[in-house]
Structures are given as structure tokens and as C-alpha cells.
Amino acid sequence: MFENLTARFEKVFRFLKGQGKLTEANIKEALREVRLALLEADVNYRVVKDFVSRIQERAVGQEVMSSLTPGQQVIKIVHEELIKLLGEKAEPLSLKGPSPVTVLLVGLQGSGKTTTAAKLALKLKKDGRHPCLVPADVYRPAAIEQLRVLAGQVGVPCYEPGQGESPESIVKAALNYAGSQRCDTLIVDTAGRLHIDRDLMEELRRLKQILSPEEILLVVDAMTGQDAVNVAEAFHKELSITGVILTKLDGDARGGAALSVRAVTGCPIKFVGVGEKLDALEIFHPDRMSSRILGM
Amino acid sequence: ARGRPVDQELLEELEEALIMADVGVNATSLIMARITEVIKKQRPQDSSKVQDILKDELVNLLTIPAHPLDPSSAKPFVIMVTGVNGVGKTTTIAKLANYWKNQNFSPLLVAADTFRAAAIDQLVLWGERIRVPVIKQQPGADPSAVVYDALEAAISRKHDLVIVDTAGRMHTRVNLMEELKKINRVISKKLPGAPHETLLVIDATTGQNALSQARLFKEAVGISGLVVTKLDGTAKGGTVIALCHELGVPIRFIGVGEGLDDIEPFDPVAFVEALLG
Ligand SMILES: Nc1nc2c(ncn2[C@@H]2O[C@H](COP(=O)(O)OP(=O)(O)OP(=O)(O)O)[C@@H](O)[C@H]2O)c(=O)[nH]1
Ligand SMILES: Nc1nc2c(ncn2[C@@H]2O[C@H](COP(=O)(O)OP(=O)(O)OP(=O)(O)O)[C@@H](O)[C@H]2O)c(=O)[nH]1
Ligand SMILES: [K+]
Ligand SMILES: [Mg+2]
Ligand SMILES: [Mg+2]
């Protein structure tokens, strides 16, 4: 479906074989292919622009010009720069501080917050912690029930909100509940919302103030297109997120959103969701992501 | 942009706008090639004319000849709703049932997502809210069996319209796509000619992956219409331009919010204006 970048580069550099000399013109051609590959992978237009100009600086330098395999050399540079941008190495959750430590999950509708909350609970439980799930989505029909069912599957407690209880009141009560259940970590699921919904963004600010979360994780669907930058920028501006979780990477999306989100927030991508099952949560690997985005 | 000269810079800006609206690299080059040709012929002096040429081209690509989606054309009229995870299938079903109920149809909803936690409860709550009955079984039940029961119920209770909610699934998961095919077979065996409409729900925030989704869902169960959800955000949903064009499938409705009334029949002109605006 997508032409592999290596194959594309072969085309660009093929005519070089007879000539054996690299010019700025064919580097430019190669960079055009990089640009197209990134756009096809859904990396944001502006992010691509910046990225390609950075590559260009390195590519016209000695290391490529003097290379016998310029195509390989440019691909190597692209990979290196992508990995650099994606964050070099995996970053774990930060769960310092007095108990209960709080993790707040936020994001657009349907991105995978509730499922990811349960996945995180399972992971922390396996790590020997005592997590507790908190349903602060009072809007979506059966959202609380969904988290309760998942908590049952994981085998961790789930705070039970009263009729008509507000998200603010739920998270306040959950802080006490954690103590009564001897839980050391609260994982708070929130309602999906648009980044342009002022009231609901304001609500998140209030939840943040009550909870002082150690981690505020933006849950982003890996299939997201150009809009990822708007979403990430707005959530980051409003809440100062501490990290990102990229979901639904089990499909065939190239996942360029990873690059966009990372570029505009500077926040690390901490985990990736790779399925609907609760153990389908993996540590983020920048090198794998880089290959995936490039389609190789 | 009115009064600007028609030059390379203008064309580059339009190209950028298309890419930023998720139209995709290939569809964008195709569209730019076409409008460049029209510009050569018509020689417009004003940039606003170029905008109009582009609009016409996009509206053209989005106008797909197709049967109208008319629930009175069969009884019961069966609609199967499909799509990847979290795109808005269940919410769209509630909106559609409400929409047609207000036009005096009597819908029956089918909770054939027996997999996702509380998916059945979600549909049941919507059903209560709009006072439309929901056929369901236990979590984990065979979705085909739920659908079979629902069709029997729809026939005996003389419902006009049956809308089947299916579990979200990745189009790349072969066994889950087989499950969907099975549901489809059960429906057509029980009611020849049904499902009369198979909708694929596409989330407007989705990028180029929407094409792969559409290809594989179409291959599995034959998509007859699209619903584009979440157009109330800042995403433009331009990916559906390539999708309609390639698959020849019309967009039926758009979703513009989480509420019951946040659904509109698709209007290509309004869609294109929002996309370029
Ligand atoms: N294939 C796959 N599906 C996922 C993944 N993560 C979540 N899902 C599915 O995506 C859909 C939406 O997930 P939810 O957890 O309900 O999403 P949410 O963000 O809580 O949704 P709202 O609360 O409505 O905003 C469900 O069908 C999940 O099973 C993943 O990594 N891979
Ligand atoms: N803003 C906005 N949100 C929507 C729209 N349609 C659905 N949603 C929200 O998207 C989320 C997911 O919707 P669902 O209807 O549960 O999606 P689904 O496709 O049935 O999800 P699964 O069954 O888990 O695959 C919910 O929070 C809905 O309220 C829309 O048009 N606009
Ligand atoms: K989504
Ligand atoms: Mg949720
Ligand atoms: Mg659903």
C-alpha cells in the first residue's frame, strides 16, 4: 500500500550508479521522498517541514556527500533524527511522592482512556503496587459501569460514585477511598472531550487542582491524522501533561501522530496500546516507531 | 484571499490546506492536477475564482451516485453498523434511531457488541433515553445469535427498522472480520436482501488509515454508506474524499456532537466549505 522508503530511495539514487557522484539536486529529490513518506504516515504538515529542513542540513554535509551508498546514508540520518525526536529511550511512569500517587488520563472521545486505565492498573498490580480505579466520566452512558467491569477483570478496587455525583466530588472522595482500601495509586478515568470545549477543559483543570497528579497522560489514538497537533497542543497548554499513551497500534496505522504529538508537547510517549485485551499495553520503543512511521 | 493574483504561491497554499485537512498526498496531487487544468482553460484572474474551482472539484468527488438510504423501502429495513474501535458506532445508532423515530418509524436496536465491557449497558441506556427497545443477551454471547433473535422479534413485533450495533474491531484482525461476515450471513439467510444498508463509521480525526479501514470492511461485508463522526472538533475529515472516490460509497450522515440531535444528513457543499474554511 505504501511504498517503502528504501524502494523510493532506490529510484532516486539509481541513476547514480553509473555516475557515482552525489549532487545537491538528488539529495533534494531524496528529501522530497522523505517528506511524502512522512505525510503519508500522517505526520503533521508543519512538523514534517521542520523535520525535513533539519535532515537537509545534515544531508548536504560531508557524511552523505562523500558516501559510496548515499541512499543508505540518508536513510540512516532520517532514522536517527526520527528517533531523537521520538525520545531516544523509553520513559517509565513517575510514581514518586506520598500515597496515594495519582495518574490522570485525559483525551478526546473514544481514544481509549477507560481501557487504558484498566491496562495501567493491571500493569501496576503486576509491578507490586496497589492501584485503585476512579471513574470520573459521568457523561457517557455506562462509562462508570465499563470501568467497574474492567476493574473486576483486573482484580482491583473501583470507587463507586453516588447518584448524580460530580467529577470533582468523585475524585475528592476517591482520595479518602484509596486510604480505606490501602491503595497506593489512583488511576483516574475522565470523560472524553474536545480540546475546544472550554467548560470541560476547565473541569479537567479543577480535577488537576484537587488531585495534584504525579502523571497527567494524554491518550491519543494512533490512527489520528493532522489534527493530533491541535489536540496535543491544547491539552498541554491547559494541563501541562506529563506524558502520552498511544493506543490502537495493533492496526496498520503508520502512527505519524506519535511524531506530531511529541514535537508539539515535548512530552514523552510512555506506553502504547496494542489491543483490546487488558495486557495489551507495551513500553514505547522510539526505534520501532521510527521504522513503522517510515514504513520499513 | 480575494483579489490575490493566481500564482504558484496560491496553489501551494491550497495544497497545504488540503494536506492539513487529511485529504492525503495522493488525493491532493490528483485534485491539484485537475484544478491546474481547469485554471489553464478558464484563466481566472481572481484567487476567489480558484477557490470556487477547488470547491466544485471537491464537491464532485464527494457526490456519489447511489440509492438513497430509505428505511421505508423494506420491512423490516435492516442496517448493520460497523467500524474500528471507538469511532462512534453506538452513539450514532442512538442518534439514527431517534432521527427515524421522529419520522414515525419504529426502530429496534440490537446489542451485538457482546465483547466490550458495558457495551450492552451503553446501548440499553440509549434505548431507554429514546424509548426504543433493545434486543440483548449476556456479555460474551455469540453476536450472530443475538442478531438472529432480534430479527425474529422485529418480524413478529412488526418493527420497521432494525439497527445492529457491532463491536469495534481492527480491520486487520482476520478472525474478527470473519465474525462480522458471519453476522452478515445470518442476517441475509433470515431475511433475503438484508442487510439493506451496511454503514461504516469513520472518525473525522482519523488520518490516512481510514482508507485501509474502508477497503477491508468493504471487502468483508460490502459497505453501502459512510457516517463521518466527530466533525464538531477541529479535524476536517478530508480523508473521506479519497475514500468516497476510491470506493464509490456515499456519505450518509455526519456526527457533530455527543448529543442525540447531533447528526445531520451529509451535505457535500457544507462539508467542503467547512473543510476549506
Ligand atoms: N484495537 C485496540 N482497541 C483499543 C485499544 N485501546 C482501546 N481500544 C478500544 O477502543 C474503544 C474505545 O475505548 P475506550 O477505552 O472506551 O475509550 P475512551 O477514551 O474511554 O472513550 P470515551 O470515554 O467515550 O471518551 C473500545 O472498543 C476499546 O476496546 C487498543 O490499544 N487497541
Ligand atoms: N464530539 C463527538 N463525540 C462523539 C461523536 N460521536 C460519538 N462521540 C463520542 O465518541 C465516544 C465513542 O463513542 P461510541 O459510540 O461508544 O463509539 P463506538 O464506535 O461504539 O465504540 P466501540 O464500541 O468501543 O468500538 C463517546 O464518548 C461518544 O460520546 C461526535 O459526533 N462528536
Ligand atoms: K478515535
Ligand atoms: Mg471512557
Ligand atoms: Mg460501541
Mind sketching the topology for me?
The complex is a heterodimer of chains A (296) and B (277).
Chain A: H1 5-14, H2 16-19, H3 24-40, H4 45-59, H5 62-65, H6 70-86, E1 101-106, H7 113-126, E2 131-136, H8 143-154, H9 167-180, E3 185-190, H10 198-211, E4 215-221, H11 228-239, E5 243-247, H12 257-265, E6 269-273, E7 281-283, H13 286-294
Parallel strand pairs in A: 1-3, 1-4, 2-3, 4-5, 5-6
Antiparallel strand pairs in A: 6-7
Helix pairs in contact in A: 1-3, 1-6, 3-4, 4-6, 6-13, 7-8, 9-10, 11-12
Chain B: H1 8-20, H2 25-42, H3 47-62, E1 77-82, H4 89-101, E2 107-112, H5 119-130, E3 134-135, H6 143-156, E4 161-166, H7 174-190, E5 197-203, H8 209-221, E6 225-229, H9 239-247, E7 251-255, E8 263-265, H10 268-276
Parallel strand pairs in B: 1-4, 1-5, 2-3, 2-4, 5-6, 6-7
Antiparallel strand pairs in B: 7-8
Helix pairs in contact in B: 1-2, 2-3, 3-10, 4-5, 6-7, 8-9
The structure holds guanosine-5'-triphosphate (GTP) (2 copies), potassium ion (K) and magnesium ion (2 copies).
One guanosine-5'-triphosphate sits between chains A (107, 109-115, 137, 140, 143, 191-192, 247-248, 250, 273-276, 280) and B (85-86, 116, 168, 170).
